[in-house]
Structure formats: structure tokens, C-alpha cells
Amino acid sequence: MIEAVGLTKRYGAKTAVHNLSFQVRPGAVTGFLGPNGSGKSTTMRMMLGLDRPTSGHVTIGGHPYRSLPNAPRLVGALLDAKAVHGGRSARNHLLSLAQLAGIPAPRVDEVLGVVGLQDVARKRSKGFSLGMGQRLGIAAALLGDPQVLLFDEPVNGLDPEGILWVRNLMKMLAAEGRTVFVSSHLMSEMALTADHLIVIGRGQLLADMSVTDFISANSADFARVRVPDGAAGHREKLTAALTGAGGQVMPEPDGALRVTGLPLPRISDLAHGADVRLWELSPHQASLEEAYMRMTQGVVDYRSTADERAGLQQPAHNGYGAAQPPVPEAPQHNWYAPPPPGQPGERGERGGQALPLPRLPPLPRT
Questions:
Q1: Residue 330, phi then psi, degrees to nearest 5
Q2: What residues are paired with 111 via a beta bridge?
Q3: Which of 27, 252, 280, 305 qualifies as a FRET site for 269, CA 20 to 30 Å off?
Q4: How many Cα atoms sit within 13 Å of 219 on the Cβ side?
């Protein structure tokens, strides 16, 4: 298990992570989400002992990473797939890592097969594509057969088949009881892969809950209703009937109506009573992307000026010379957009063919 307690990291006057506390439990894929600049990479670097916290601490299995005996056999990580000597072959790169950690050499060929790089194992890594580099980084993370795995953007550069392979790999590792922590900006992939989510913004915790609970807490379900094209006045009649019964009706760009506040059977009854025939009456549940965008809309530091022209951004000075949406005075349920730390109001391509995913044989423990 990974546990962060009061984790804070400052670089001079800039606070990258502020009083961050959470747990990552084994047996599940935990997604780590947040906008660019939210502190995700800094947090993962502190987990691996690459950066020292200004205050607070983070432990893996109850110990700081630097105190773990033979850490590569206990923790595997992919933070930067480019962190490879370009003159070395894929096999020699992994072999050097194995020798440093006392891992038997046959293990190198095993993980090269698992990630699908066995046919290019003796080629220099400087000629690898982005996707091949990602596969090599994943192989390095798996090398010690660790119980804890951290991945930062593991599907970057992979084709659809490779993305599916990574998704299945994450799930398999978690099903074996390992702790799997994955940072990604691909909401659609996180929705298919993650069981639990930790979301941060401006270095502070926004959410720590299951994917299902996160979507439910940060979205509003609605019904899509459509009347026959060309039915004069039917749209207006239906709108009047629905609003009269307490529903809220908004037009959709494709001509349908978005209805909230009324269950589907009630909408059907009202349409029947108004003598309006329906071509569509369907429930809609928000996606993870929609819920994530709603939660993080107040903590995004970089926006296109086109957003403001479209009315998507209300300028407000954030103390750093950039426009920023205002923080709600009273946070909604499970919705909080913290101010910048220190401000008032803060709170405490495919490279080789992917193979099936066999369980890797355990390494002898010394």
C-alpha cells in the first residue's frame, strides 16, 4: 500500500503539492488525475524518493522508498520512457537494471516477451518509436516482479491494440493483489481501466473515491427527448408540459431536448397527455470525462482565449498574472476548487507484436 500524509513540496516561492493525503490500496487500479501543473508528477517523484518533501511523508508498505531493501524488487515504475541510454539495445538496458538489482538474467527475456519487444531486443533504443519506448519502460517496471507499480501516462504513443494490451495488463496486475497507481490524461481509458480515483488540482486533493461515486457526485443525469421532425408545435407543447410539471428543458444542438428533474416514465406520461409522439426518450449518464471537467473547471491554469470568447471562462486574477475562473464561495457537494496554495481560503506504436499476458513467474527473494 502507498500512503501519503500531509505531503507538501515547495520550489522556492512556488508550491507544487500542498498538504496532500491519500492511500493507494492493493487489488485495484487507482487512477491519478489532475490538470497540467496540478502536481501529479511531483507527487510520483516523491513517492519514488526522487524529490524530498518539504513537509509530510509518503511511504510504500510502511517505509519510505529510500529505506526499502532492494527497492526494484518491491516497486516498479514508469515515469519517463525516454530515460534510456540510446546506444544500448533494449535487452542490454534491461540487463543492466537486472544486474544492479540482483535479478536473474532470464527474467529480461521474459519481460521482453510480455511487452512484445522480443523481435527488436537487440536493436538500439535510440531508433525506437514512442510506442516502443513505452513498452520498454513497462518492461523495466515489471522486471523485478514488484508488488507495487507506478505508471505515468503508460499508453502514450501506443496504437489501439497496444492501449488495449496495457489496459488488460493493469487489470491483471491488480487482480493478482498488486498495488497499481496510474496517472493519465485519457479519461476514456481511465473509465475502462481504473477502479478508484485520486484527483488533485493545484497540488491539493479534490477527490478520493471510486469511479462510480466520482461520476455520480460530479454530474447530473438527464433524459434526451426527441419529437418527429416537422411536427409543427409539438416541441413547444412538450416543453410547456414538462416545465409545467417541474422539469427543466434545454435544447440540444441536434434538435433533441435535454430534460432534468423528471423520471422517464413521467416524461412519457406527460408527452402522451399532451398528444405528442416521441421519437426518442433515452436516459443519459455522464461520462468520466464530463464529471472530471466539471470538477476541475476551477483549477485549470492554462486556457485558450477562445474559451473566454465562448463564455466558458470568467476572468479572475489568480495572483500569478493569469486569468482564472473564480472559486465558488460555498463548495457544492463533493466539488471543490481550491485557491492557489498560500492564498486565503486554502484547505488543510507499436513495436513488435503484443503477446498474451501470462503471469510472470515469481523471482526468488533474497
A1: -120, 110
A2: none
A3: 252
A4: 18
Q: Per DSSP, which regions of the chain are E strands?
A: 2-11, 14-24, 28-33, 55-60, 75-78, 148-152, 179-183, 196-201, 204-210, 222-226, 248-251, 257-260, 280-284
Which phi and psi (to 5°) does residue 168 adopt? -65, -35
> What is the spatial distance between Cα 34 and Cα 304, in angstroms, rounded to a whole number?
18
Residue/partner pairs of 59-66 with CB below 8 Å, 24 or more apart: 59/2, 59/3, 60/1, 60/2, 60/148, 61/1, 61/147, 61/148, 62/1, 62/3
- The residues, any chain, with a CB within 8 Å of residue 225's CB and separated by 6 or more, are 238, 242, 256, 257, 258, 259, 267, 271, 278, 280, 281
Residue 362: count other Cβ atoms within 10 Å of its Cβ: 7
Residue pair 39/203 in contact (Cβ under 8 Å)? The answer is yes
Tally of CB atoms within 10 A around 24: 23
CA triple 317-295-191, angle to 5 deg: 140
Strand ranges across the sheet with 14-24? 14-24, 2-11, 55-60
How many CA atoms, within 13 angstroms, populate the side-chain half-sphere of residue 275? 2
Flag whether the pTM goes above 0.85. Answer: no
40, 200 contact by CB (below 8 A): yes
Phi-psi region of 125 (alpha: psi -120 to 50; beta: other; left: phi over 0): alpha
Q: How far apart are CA 108 and CA 76, in angstroms?
A: 14
Phi, then psi, of 167 in degrees rounded to 5: -55, -45
Look at residues 175, 163, 149 and name the one whose alpha carbon lies nearest to residue 71.
149
Angstrom CA distances, 249 to 211, 244, 258, 272, 284, stand at 28, 11, 6, 17, 14
Give all strands of the β-sheet with 179-183 in edge-to-edge order: 75-78, 148-152, 179-183, 28-33, 196-201, 204-210
φ, ψ of residue 70 in degrees (nearest 5): 50, 60
Interatomic CA distance for residues 346 and 342, integer angstroms:
7
